[in-house]
Design brief:
Its EC number is 5.4.99.-. One of its GO terms (biological process) is enzyme-directed rRNA pseudouridine synthesis. Helix content is 20%, strand content 26%. By secondary structure, the chain is α+β, with helices and mostly antiparallel strands. It has 3 domains: 4-58, Structural Genomics Hypothetical 15.5 Kd Protein In mrcA-pckA Intergenic Region, Chain A (Roll), CATH 3.10.290.10; 65-128 and 213-237, Pseudouridine synthase I, catalytic domain, N-terminal subdomain (Alpha-Beta Plaits); 134-211, Alpha-Beta Plaits. The strands form 3 sheets. Strands 7, 8, 9, 10, 11, 12, 13, 14 and 15 form a 9-stranded mixed beta sheet that branches. A 4-stranded antiparallel beta sheet has the order 3-2-5-6. 32% of the residues are buried.
Length: 250
């Protein structure tokens, strides 16, 4: 495994922010192979060297980030008694412990699902305080109009009385069946379906094409997946300034 900065390793493992780790190092609380390390920029091999913080061993866990193009009929869950899950679609060699889908898509919705074992990142991108953007393509029954665009921008009031946050709606093709793109900054249950239901225009097809500024790879077939590139991980981690960019791995 390639050597990485000590502060990045410990921050990625949830020991603290890089500022916290710098203070710990200055206080002599961090050891590598039994020696006190006061320089948090030191490059070490976490797979070979022994780390201790405040006298407690810290075991390095390599984190995984998979972009999947979820097909319809598959549920965004780890285990389900009736349906195949996104975890079931992973090759056995990639099905490492503690993986989970960060967020959910309805069983009939397609598109970008992030599968990871990075709980910190998942919490950051799913937190309602962060308003991380999610982009969808949809086909709806009925002609979508400029008035609908304005209603989305103002914040639609749904049938249950909830006022959705302002959202971006773009018309790609208007007709008896309209094709649209939607950008949301929240993720309520069945939200897009409920928003168009409030306009009397049922959703016929829905696909998530971007999450947090990361685009779904158009080369992925339904059920296909690939590892996120380092720059894509960094983009997701930028949603929370407390998260460091992921260091490069061998």
């Amino acid at each position: 495994m390639a050597k990485q900065r000590l502060d990045r390793i410990l921050a990625e493992m949830g020991v603290g922010s890089r500022r916290d780790i710098k203070k710990m190092a200055r206080s002599g609380l961090i050891e590598v192979d039994g020696r006190v390390v006061r320089d948090p920029s030191l490059h070490i091999d976490p797979g070979e060297q022994v780390l201790c913080v405040a006298g407690q061993p810290v075991h390095y866990q390599r984190l995984h980030y998979w972009m999947m193009n979820k097909p319809p009929g598959v549920v965004s869950a780890v285990i389900d008694p009736r349906h195949r899950t996104v975890i079931d679609l992973l090759d056995e060699s990639d099905r490492t412990p503690h993986l989970f889908p960060a967020g959910r898509l309805d069983i009939d919705t397609e598109g970008f699902v992030l599968i990871t074992d990075d709980g910190q990142l998942a919490h950051a991108i799913l937190s309602p305080k962060r308003h991380v953007s999610k982009t969808y393509r949809a086909t709806v029954q009925g002609r979508v109009s400029d008035a609908d665009i304005a209603a989305f921008a103002q914040g639609l009031i749904l049938r249950d009385g909830y006022r959705a946050l302002p959202a971006h709606l773009q018309i790609l093709n208007a007709g008896e069946r309209s094709e649209v793109e939607i950008v949301l900054r929240e993720g309520k249950f069945h939200q897009i379906k409920r928003m168009f239901a409030a306009l009397g225009k049922p959703v016929l097809y829905l696909k998530r094409v971007a999450f947090g500024g990361v685009q779904l790879d158009p080369s992925l077939p339904p059920g296909g997946y690939r590892a996120l590139a380092d720059d894509e991980i960094a983009r997701l981690r930028e949603t929370d300034p407390r998260l460091p960019p992921r260091p490069a791995e061998s």
